[in-house]
Amino acid sequence: MLDAAGWAAGGDGIRAKDGRRASFTLMYPATDSLRKELPLAVTADAKKAGIEIKPEGLTSDAITPRMKNDALIMGYGTPYDPDFVSYKLFGSAFAEEGYYNPGSYRSAVVDKVLQDGRDHTATAERQAAYATFQKQPSRVGQVLWPTVAATERASPTSSARRTAK
Predict the structure, then answer these.
(1) Who's near 110: CB < 8 A, 6+ residues apart?
(2) CA distance 5 to 123
(3) For the CA atoms of 83, 84, 89, 93, what is the dihedral angle to 10 degrees?
(4) Cα gap 100→91, rounded to integer Å
(5) Cα separations (Å) of 88 from 23, 104, 110, 139, 144?
(6) Which of 75, 70, 76 minimizes the C-alpha distance to 56?
(7) Half-sphere exposure of 165 (CA within 13 A, CB side)
(8) pLDDT tens readout for residues 46-66
């Protein structure tokens, strides 16, 4: 796919197109050992595809001003309800509000299904909303999902029984 799009491997194995290398910085909180391991794993896999990722562990004070320009590995989650994190992390209304939606992700579809998930109490309706949500961010190429939360069991009444896959 990269070859067909004109991204050719250079002598060092890193792809380039029109003089621009397939290379970027991936920031992570320096004090978070799990967030450090994820960029290292992603870096190794990306290099096999000819993409250079430069992991950089930083303090939150150093990360914040760079969030508009550099990639950031973040970790959020809850075993109770996908709404607790997803609504602010992906809702257009929260674009660029600190660590809420730092990538300025905007999608009318996502806004609608996240609101639908909030508005409904019926398990089937919530499942449908969050299943649609899970498919959306990757369609525009702004979000990389190293892991995906289980939302098919999303129910406001069964939170204690839910577990992530």
Answers:
(1) 90, 91, 92, 133, 136, 137
(2) 42
(3) 70
(4) 9
(5) 29, 11, 11, 19, 17
(6) 70
(7) 9
(8) 999 999 999 999 998 999 899
pLDDT score of 38 more than 80: yes
DSSP 131: H
Q: How far apart are CA 71 and CA 56, in angstroms?
A: 10
Q: Which residue's structure tokens are 């961010």? A: 137
Prediction pTM value: 0.59
Q: In 3D, which of 4, 2, 6, 154 has the Cα closest to residue 80?
A: 154
Give the helix ranges, DSSP H, for the chain. Answer: 33-48, 60-63, 83-90, 108-119, 123-135
pLDDT of 138 = 58
